[in-house]
Amino acid sequence: MNSADMINTVPVLAGNGDSPVPEITEAQFLAMLDKNMDHVKQFFMYYKCAIMEVETKFKVLNEQFSLKGDSNPIEFIQSRIKSYGSLYKKMEAKQLPRTLEAMEEHVNDIAGVRVVCSFIQDIYHLADCFLAQDDIRLIAQKDYIREPKPNGYRSLHLIVEVPIFLEHEKRPIKVEVQLRTIAMDFWASLEHKLRYKKDLSAAQQRFLSGEMKVCADQSAQWDKRMQNIRNIIY
User: Fold this and answer.
1) The whole model's pTM is what?
2) What are phi and psi of 72, to 5 degrees?
3) Does the pLDDT at position 174 exceed 90?
């Protein structure tokens, strides 16, 4: 059985685009995955392998800069595979068929790699070096550093396709890469935790949104000042 056959063996739980997608609960979605767990494990193994490929590429770049006498631009790297619950919510929002085939085609951030850098210039230099590699295909790019989100979120997002080499095939897999500074990562981590606090009044939510935006802008100023200091030193 090849990989395409494997994906299509998972039952279609929604329409074909000409008809509305029928309602399916998260519990039904998880039960479908559990019933086809052998195929599901193989499917997500592809994304784990793609993460390893991307992480290795950044680690090699970091090592090269270190050998050249430059300071290491990468502070740390984190990665994740999106949870089944998060995938269900995304597919529900996109009105997608609840199949692995639809997931592979339409969900770009099943696999995610976060690269946290020391300085803003490191982000763009690393991104340029990474995208210059001939086995990386850029699908989409969103620069939330130059154009932050309304809430203050800043990061450089890349959707790329990277090949993984299996026993009998080479398979392209999509990975979302986020590059950000330590300050950006600190703010985003706290914002993520606070976002899910549901027992707040509307007035409290408005106040905290304003406070988080101020903190984001102040963090951005710190990043710029630290970059200026580095430029003077080097």
Assistant:
1) 0.84
2) -65, 120
3) yes
